Amino acid sequence: MTTESTPNPDDGPESDLATTSSGDPKSVPTGHPLAFLFFFCGEFAERCSYYGMRAILPLYLTQALHFSDATGLALYSQFKTACYALPLLGGFLADRFFGKYNTIVWFSIPYVIGHFVLGIESHWAALLALALLAGGSGVIKPNISTLLGATYDQQRPGQTQLRSSAFMWFYFAINVGALISTIALPYLRDHYGYATAFLFPAWLMVASLAVFASGKRFYAKETLVHQVLSPQQKQEQKAVLGRLLGVFALMVLFWVPYEHNDSVWVFFARDHVNLAMPLTNRSFAPDQLQFMNPLCVMIFAPLFGVLFPLVDPQAKIFTMRNKILLGFISGTIASGIMTLAGALAQADTKVSIVWLIASYVLLTIGEVLVYGTGLELAYSAAPANMKGFVTGCFLLTTAIANQFNTFWSPLYNEKLPPVQFFGLSGLFALFGLIGVMLISLPQSDDAPAPEAVT
């Protein structure tokens, strides 16, 4: 059973547009529907809440709750594993039982509760909060962008450029929210304590839920209908997954060292980095430099989106394979820089913050290329009846990497000093790079690629 968005002429002026247009783009408005404001503001607040909470979580686990670094890293990796694995469950529940809107609203309630519980400085409260936060964030994650696309398909049929623009601004909202919160939360923590700092993302999530829920009548109308797959469709699913399996396995190797940027790198910054910016009086908290990631995404994602078609309009040079390859190269170099920084760092000598900034820049370039192109590959190589499922499988590669880090990250400083840990972690990306050089990617079905929404 799948969820379909069907027009209903009794549901207000927005759905009337779909029924009167008959799919002709000339007969529908060319501007964004009112629903977009609710999506934009709601997603901005939710992602600001989520990334702000995550920004200070590793140090909260070790400083306030007094977990060891190894235990804190393991818990944090398990939390992120759940956040990236549960979107498959979220899509299943929305498609089979509840619909996208109801799934988002209902699972946002434990999400909100989790934020408030996290401020209680107790081991059991933290574990309960992380379970609620992972469940809420993971389950609603695949449904917001899907409902956004369905709303445009229903209310602005044929306006594909308008829908692409909506996803671009949606992606922009995500990273603006992440940028603000990763700067603000460490500041609030340092000046007012963890309990007060966690109230900021908690109330942002309340605002996000209120904004999103209030826009219900402007969204696509959903009707649950039964769909039984034929034997041919089932065989097609197996064939697609088989072709993509090798590519996805290599992407796991990229995410293993990448996922250290908001955990292990924070601990390295705390212990081995001079966090004063050269030539200025500005100094950063160890976890505050994470703002470099959303900032660089906001720079490089649109830059590459303009540059690649301009330089290579036929996509003969910057093919999907070559863009993924460039992403692996950039990520491998980032790990190499962290390895050198680890070699230079001594017990009484701290390395310049420039090393960490350079690593964040290169790692984010790799992220934009691998993640954005990976979504494009997952969407375009999949048949029409399973694009969402294959995209969910692609997102699962991050969950697998985080699950591996549940065991790998705790080795940092416990059994492996920084230079060895970052060097060995970089080998994962290097092996993946070599693998990408040796494989051929599945052929696209020439379907339009989705925007990179995280």
What does this structure look like?
The chain has 454 residues and is an all-alpha fold. It has 2 domains: 1-25 and 34-227, Growth Hormone, Chain: A (Up-down Bundle); 231-448, Growth Hormone, Chain: A. 72% of the residues lie in helices and 3% in strands. A two-stranded antiparallel ribbon has the order 1-2. The protein has a two-stranded parallel sheet with strand order 3-4. It starts with a strand and ends in a 16-residue tail after the last helix.
The CATH superfamily of the largest domain appears as MFS general substrate transporter like domains
Number of discrete domains: 2
Class based on secondary structure composition and strand pairing: mainly alpha
Query: What separation lies between the terminal Cα atoms?
Result: 26 Å
Overall pLDDT level: 85
Strand order, sheet with most strands: 1-2
The H/E string reads EHHHHHHHHEHHEHHEHHH
* Number of helices, counting only DSSP H or I runs of 4 residues or more: 15
Main sheet summary: 2 strands, antiparallel
